[in-house]
Amino acid sequence: MADKFDVIVIGAGPGGYVAAIRAAQLGLKTACVENWKDKEGNPTFGGTCLNVGCIPSKALLEISHKYVEAKHGFADQGLVVGDLSVDVPKMMERKSTIVKNLTGGIGQLFKANGVTPIIGRGRLLGGKQVEVTDSEGKTQTYSAENVILATGSRPIEIPPARTDGDKIVDSEGALEFTEVPKRVGVIGAGIIGLELGSVWARLGAEVTVLEAQETLLPMVDQQLAKEAMKTFTKQGLDIKLKCRVTGTEIKRGVVKVTYEDTKGTQELKCDKLIVAVGRTPNTENLLEGDTGVNIDERGFVHVDDYCQTDAPGVYAVGDMVRGPMLAHKGSEEGIMVADRIAGHKAEVNYDAIPNVIYTHPELAWVGQTEEQLKAAGETYKVGAFPFAANGRAMAAHAAEGQVKIIADEKTDRILGMHIIGPQASEMIAQGVIAMEFGSSAEDLALTCFAHPTLSETVHEAALAVDGMAVHKANRKRKKK
């Protein structure tokens, strides 16, 4: 039997490594088990997010946006540039450098905080024992007072479009193209599909997105989702709704996708096909039979509001439990669990978790949508303000979109904030903070915002909730 720990974390993604660091900071003897290897076969931390998800995709989104801005936007601003070209290998090299720096940084943080890294595949046994199998198949068993499961998720595979790592790829493969394909097909118009489709469309590919749902982004406030649909279409993304993919075939280097829509059987030909239909928890072979931890039919670990499983002393966080599959949600859960193990009272406010789609313009939201409030029969009031009337947005050549704030009709408490526009991912934090403190729309309306800034749209939207926006004509509000 190897050393005994106060806490063993299985998984070093955003939920796991954050939980391990926090536990160690609180004086608990902590280890973190991780099996991920980089392309050179070296152990690496950060999970999907840092290695093949959030970070590399944002690097490519940022680079591709700069390319589009230079190619199509500079001339309007009086900037004259010569012929532009895309060096995809150089672009991928920069993405890899960013990933390497960040994943290496986690190793340094483990060292600085006294977290013991254990390299191998972790498996929970009965009695809070953790079995770790290394790359050579050798096993070692560790004991812990508390175990945190944080093994994350992986892309869902669908039978009609099995990935082959070359022509048909998942979200990871879509970040590794060595050149810009002429035609790209994307199955799934969710967050991942839209972001990856945007990257390659900006760089010159003809992109077609096939989505089974009847509406684009049904989880987004539909006023903003409809605006997004118009914008993405204008940018060249061909988004086809109500499409069910029935099969794929590769012939002479071309992928033929067969799908059904309202008109019958259709066909799409592309050079690369990205399958982005969601993610599924990494819980296969994670648990021995007598752990007491329960998993549902979809592979999610059952936990309570505090991420406690059905087995005492065993917790689970992040993508493998209920709630949105978001890195920051997993991190907050990891911190909460470490705090609770150390004897502190802690919880996650699931009503104030921000969501972001890193297209251009960005979409970001927190709280409830109009559709959700209508369905619940709640009374509410709405204020909105367009970036087209914001000086900083105009100066930045980024005046698309709007900020929308929804407040309770009676109490004025903010129920949701929804943004489509420049820097939405940063600005949504203002709504999150406001909701964390139980703020009213009036609280934001009475707050002084710097001028000129994009954030003034938040101020004006808050004023507009009661028909008092200064820099736009206010509509008379109808009582709901």
TrEMBL record:
**GO molecular-function annotation terms?**
dihydrolipoyl dehydrogenase (NADH) activity; flavin adenine dinucleotide binding
**NCBIfam families (UniProt xref):** lipoamide_DH
- Annotated FAD binding lies at 58, 122, 151-153, 319, 325-328
Ranges of residues in domain FAD/NAD(P)-binding = 5-334
Instruction: Write out the similarity annotation.
Output: Belongs to the class-I pyridine nucleotide-disulfide oxidoreductase family.
Question: Where is the catalytic site?
Answer: 451 (proton acceptor)
Q: What are the entry keywords?
A: Cytoplasm, Disulfide bond, FAD, Flavoprotein, NAD, Nucleotide-binding, Oxidoreductase, Redox-active center
Annotated NAD(+) binding lies at 188-195, 211, 278
Compartment annotation: Cytoplasm
Q: Which cofactor does it need?
A: FAD
Give every Pyridine nucleotide-disulphide oxidoreductase dimerisation domain span.
353-462
Intrachain disulfide bonds: 49-54
Under Pfam families, the record lists:
Pyr_redox_2, Pyr_redox_dim
Query: What biological processes does GO assign it?
Result: 2-oxoglutarate metabolic process
Highest taxon of source: Bacteria
One cellular component term (GO) for this entry is:
cytoplasm
Q: What is this protein called?
A: Dihydrolipoyl dehydrogenase
Q: How is the cofactor bound?
A: Binds 1 FAD per subunit.
**Organism expressing this protein natively:** Hydrocarboniclastica marina
Comment field (misc): The active site is a redox-active disulfide bond.
Catalysed reaction equations from the record: N(6)-[(R)-dihydrolipoyl]-L-lysyl-[protein] + NAD(+) = N(6)-[(R)-lipoyl]-L-lysyl-[protein] + NADH + H(+)
Q: What is its EC number?
A: 1.8.1.4
